[in-house]
Description:
Layout: E1 3-8, H1 13-24, E2 27-33, E3 46-49, H2 55-68, E4 74-77, H3 92-102, H4 106-120, E5 124-128, H5 131-134, H6 143-162, E6 169-175, H7 181-186, H8 198-209, E7 218-221
Parallel strand pairs: 1-2, 1-4, 2-3, 4-5, 5-6, 6-7
Helix pairs in contact: 1-8, 2-4, 3-6
Amino acid sequence: xxxxxxxxxxxxxxxxxVVDKFxxxxxxxxxxxxxxxxxxxxxxxxxxxxxxxxxxxxxxxxREFQMQYNDLDALAMLVGGFAMGDLESTAxxxxxxxxxxxxxxxxxxxxxxxxxxxxxxxGTFLFVGARPALELDKAKGTIAYALSKNLVVSLAEILAEExxxxxxxxxxxxxSIIDTQANRESMPDADFSRWVSPKDIAEAMHxxxxxxxxxxxxxxxxxxx
Length: 225
């Protein structure tokens, strides 16, 4: 029987590393991509175009998944975005944008995938938070981003409470700046050696999925920062 993982945001810098890692480890990787946005991820076994912030679209995908696959081992929710902005310069539209990118893509997927995992009595949710969501001194210049990621961390913790009496697990990964091409282009003068590698995050995710003794944990992946 195939081990299946769904990866949202599979075409991003972190997403491709996660797809590659799980594929090399023998998983059947189902990649979710933004509709009409870029090419399929070649390393994935299957690619689906799904607007993961649209609950109806997510529900349609979940129905398709249940028809096509036996079960689900893990859901990696990697869609996200970043924006600078201190308290004085942050407007409501900035907060709405960050919440849309970083939180609302996780809420429908978590709620629709949870019944599948409850029925099969296994599975791991993989969330990605951010360091400013935990360390307020680093949130001052990224207000909307930090607030949205704080919600993600809270959602992971609420889900962990929901499944604590079951074999299902909910892990949240807290990276510092991830060393992606997009981040390098936006911060060309930064010391990239101090950033955390997407491959390291992918390794950590794979390790947790395959170690049932690790239950509902928060992993701080800060690289050299």
